[in-house]
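Page 37, top half.
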Amino acid sequence: MKTIKGVYDLHIHSAPDIRTRKHDDLELLSQAEALGAAGFVLKSHQFPTTERAWILNKLAHKTIAYGSITLNNAVGGLNPTAVRYALELGAKIVWLPTIDARNHRQKESKQGGITIKEGNRIVPELLEILRVIKQHNAVLATGHISKDEIYAVLEAANDLGISHIVVTHPEFHIVDLSIEDQKFIVSNFDNVYFERTFAQPIGNGNYQNNLPANVEAIREVGYETTLVSTDSGQIENPPWNESLPAYIQFLRENNIEEDAIDWMTKKLPAKLLNIN
């Protein structure tokens, strides 16, 4: 297997967390340094991870850890102040609501949840958040909101000139963007990329491998708009240091060119992280 030296993974879950994870932060850092990874972003559904990344970087030799914030109920939902402080402390990605999004709750037959729209417009709090993201040139990730909401967010983000926009795992059944939906987005919005992850939950603790669907999407929508991430850390899935090499190897075995793989795993994530 060829090396994965120099790659980035912009979506990894790790302990400490409310949910039991496959590895803790220190174990993840050790795995990443052993594989020669350039960097990774810690994600939590409940808490900002920037402080944890800061501590890891005191211990790291080569791999750089980055923090993020996810706008679920634990941080006050669509909370511009929380976003501003997280970005000032160095967070790189702002995820819109995930497990507390109204769309996510509805798909799981639950009530309530955070919505980002009032009628045909995004709510004022989100517009303020988008302005803060623009100011810091951070990554806006769409989380688990609905297709309708994604379109509204992309329109507002484009109007503001946000240059780093990531549609979070479009293949995930909660998000559920078809190939045609993705082609529509590419044709109508600028600076939008699709994060394609290793696996997705399908209920009762089971996960479905996304890699065949990811290869199809790369061919249909284009590698230029694809960000390779694992979304790893679940007990039910392989450890991160197995899933990322397996992902890259699968791409090679399915005749995805090395230049395309470098773009999806190295150059594009470095661009999103504002690394020259």
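Page 37, bottom half:
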Amino acid sequence: MSIEMIPDGTAVLDDAATLRRKAFVDAARELFFANGYAGTTMSSIASKVGGSKTTLWTYFPSKEDLFAAVVDDIVAQYGDALAIDLPLDEPVRDVLRAFGNVLMTKLTATPLLSLYRLVIGEAERFPHLSETFYSRGPRRGKARAAIWVAEKMARGEIRMGDPMRAVNQFAGLCQSGLYQFAVLGLREGRDLGRLHEDIDAAVDTFYRAWCPIGNETP
């Protein structure tokens, strides 16, 4: 059937289905965050939207599939760090500083903090949730950054080594300050103005460890 032969009503149904799916994802996110993964049932999600569990199953065959959709939705909204430009012709410090600022601004956003707490809280009982979260967010971002680091290593701008280890260390440095307080919901984690200080310190420490021999001077 050609596009011209498709009935006009089809587009409306597609739009309605998209909105219905989003309603289920939004409801699942709210209930997951409020009650945890184990404490949320497919029936409760369907009830919150106002539909039947059978209808919900036509969109998401399992609660795990629905959780993955919640993760994808949040990453799509707050995963800017996964797509930030990493120019090869700009200085290492400048690129890392820009990357770190975007990364930490997004990681301290309430939805991502809530998602991280949910995953950590359920990791022992539902380890597949951790894999779903990590593969759809952090792993993608780090893999992309590792490609940039590897090229900078090849150019002699970063000391040779394991690119992924370097990326993991930089991410850890960025998350070593205010972020720890934010995850725990402590008052110290609300002063997001300190993020820039954390990023500057992370860039400085990383570069001191990974700068090429002879470039140790800040």
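Margin note: Confidence is low (pLDDT under 50) at residues 1-13.
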